[in-house]
Amino acid sequence: MAFFPAALDNLIDRFAALPGVGRKSAQRLAFYVLSLPEQETAAFAEAITAAKRDVRQCRICRNYTDRDVCPICASDRRDRSVICVVSDPKDVLSIERAREYNGLYHVLHGVISPMNHIGPDDIGVKDLLVRAANDEVQEVIMATNPDTEGEATAMYISRLLKPFSIKVTRLAYGIPVGSNLEFADDATLTRALEGRTEI
Question: CATH homologous superfamily of domain 6-54?
């Protein structure tokens, strides 16, 4: 027996398909959308349509932009000798938020994951190699997540970059600021000890 009209069920299904949104959260979102005034609902729908229509990948770094080249790649204030490789566009935002990095980026849009049938050709590895061939590039920072797929992707790319005589580095891992040693797992402590620096 159907509890809701087909259109509402369809809206709930669409929200439930989003990452991290369960069925109950999808229902709450759907009911919230139905409670919005007609004008706000139309604006919400138009925002989704406009983002899908206008946002594309930068032809250089593959980050999201509404132009041919994103503002970071177009800036003459960025250090063009360093490229930070990230898995997703949202990782660029995380690194930029720290305000410590001034180089360029390369967004893979995924990681190598044989279990999910994602290989090197399915992510932006070839484009990175083309950029690395540029004499200006001196360092590539691997900033993929410290999980199995992120590590495998970083190792694979670092092997491909060896012939270019480019310095390949990996983001340091360790104890998060403000946490306690007693709550750190063995792998985190091991990485923290391996990556220790002189003070």
Answer: RecR Domain 1 (1.10.8.420)
For the entire predicted model, the pTM comes to 0.83
Asked whether the domain spanning 80-167 has the same topology as the one spanning 6-54, the reply is no
How would you write the chain as a 3-class SS string? CCCCCHHHHHHHHHHHCCCCCCHHHHHHHHHHHHHCCHHHHHHHHHHHHHHHHHCEECCCCCCEECCCCCHHHHCCCCEEEEEEEECCHHHHHHHHHHCCCCEEEEECCCCCEHHHCECHHHCCHHHHHHHHCCCCCCEEEECCCCCHHHHHHHHHHHHHHHHHCCEEEECCCCCCCCCCHHHCCHHHHHHHHHCCCCC
Which class in CATH covers the domain with range 80-167?
A: alpha beta
* pLDDT single digits (tens) 111-127: 999 888 998 889 989 99
The mean pLDDT of 20-31, rounded to a whole number, is 94
